[in-house]
Design goal:
Blueprint: E1 23-24, E2 28-32, E3 46-49, E4 60-63, E5 68-75, H1 80-87, H2 104-119, E6 128-131, H3 135-145, E7 158-160, E8 172-173, E9 180-182, H4 201-207, E10 211-212, H5 232-246, E11 253-258, H6 260-267, H7 276-282, E12 291-298, H8 323-329, H9 331-334
Helix pairs in contact: 2-3, 5-6
């Protein structure tokens, strides 16, 4: 696999004028997904190209639709650590940036991406939102994929209470929103930088009442170490574990709100069998609040999903021997044609 031809809709789904990665691994195949119209690939098998099968730099392969998921990857909006770290890299060591929250500019980025996912219809397609359990990612996830402003009397818990994270922001409702779940596997590099250390789950729950924290095993952050920083290779391995875990979920279209390092090093493990230009497109860092939509393919039966569109045929039963099979079965008759 290296390349896929995908129709571009009138309104781009991807949020940023940047090339989309196409990638593969021994067990999972990823490539860009650009359309949410009914004529898109979700109504037919997923196609991609293999260089080993054609003389051109790109070729194609075929996969059953039910062995695929559509994922929408989002890096969090601008946080206070992004601003301070740009000025002085040593600022990342400051505990003043502990569990960094979004800046006013970051919230503007969230509002703009929220408008985009509404305009392109993506907000109606998402089955599940997965977020890293840090303040900036949860703020981004709720702001982009959550419902409207929460008011008293709404028969649904708020996704976020008012003014969560030291900012004057209204509460957001979970009404007409997909489920939200916090997952530790998609966190940023663990260790050393206080901005990447999370609060306790018991502190988060009152701030984000409708986010499901049940998959987080420990209330306190025992993964973050003050003197050991997770290596890029360890982050990439954790990212592949996260992608494999996605196949345990039944949802087919999933939004994932995470971090620059996690997304970059995870995606960098894909595309080694692609054209060098495609590989370089994979290994690009996400901008703050950038959205990229991709399709991942289960090539090793990690998941156990079944098709909802396949139809067995032959109902009612009848003779249906194809002509080419008939020629193989009765070669002497085929020779007289």
């Amino acid at each position: 696999m290296t390349f896929a031809a995908i129709n571009t809709p009138p309104l781009p789904l991807n949020y940023r004028s940047a090339p989309f990665p196409i990638s593969s691994s021994p067990s999972i195949l990823c490539f860009p997904f650009a359309s949410h119209h009914r004529r898109r690939f979700r109504l037919s098998p997923v196609l991609c190209f293999s260089a080993s099968e054609m003389d051109a730099p790109a070729g194609q392969s075929l996969y059953p639709l039910h062995r695929s998921k559509t994922i929408h990857l989002v890096r969090h909006a601008q946080g206070i650590h992004n601003v301070e770290g740009e000025k002085d890299h040593n600022a990342y060591l400051s505990y003043d940036l502990f569990d960094a929250h979004l800046t006013p500019l970051g919230w503007n980025q969230v509002d703009n991406l929220h408008k985009h996912v509404k305009a392109c219809g993506l907000s109606k397609k998402i089955d599940l939102v997965i977020t890293s359990p840090l303040l900036r990612t949860m703020q981004t996830a709720v702001g982009v994929f959550g419902g409207g402003a929460y008011t008293d009397g709404i028969n649904a818990p708020p996704l976020m209470v008012a003014n969560a994270g030291k900012r004057d922001r209204p509460a957001r409702t979970s009404l007409n929103s997909p489920p939200f779940i916090a997952v530790e596997l998609c966190r940023e590099h663990l260790g050393v930088h206080p901005c990447d250390k999370r609060r306790s789950v018991s502190e988060y729950c009152p701030l984000f009442p409708a986010i499901d924290f049940s998959l987080i095993e420990n209330d306190e952050d025992i993964l973050w170490k003050p003197d050991v920083r997770e290596t890029n290779e360890e982050v990439a391995a954790r990212g592949l574990k996260f992608l494999n875990w996605l196949w345990t979920r039944e949802e087919r279209e999933i939004a994932i709100v995470s971090h620059s390092g996690f997304l970059y090093h995870t995606l960098s493990k894909f595309g080694d069998d692609c054209h060098p230009t495609v590989k370089s497109e994979i290994c690009t860092h996400f901008a703050n609040c950038e959205l990229r939509s991709m399709v991942i393919i289960d090539r090793s039966l990690i998941g156990s999903g079944s098709s909802t569109t396949n139809y067995p045929g032959k109902i009612p039963k009848g003779l249906d021997l194809p002509s080419d099979v008939a020629e193989e079965k009765h070669p002497e008759k085929g020779a007289h044609k």
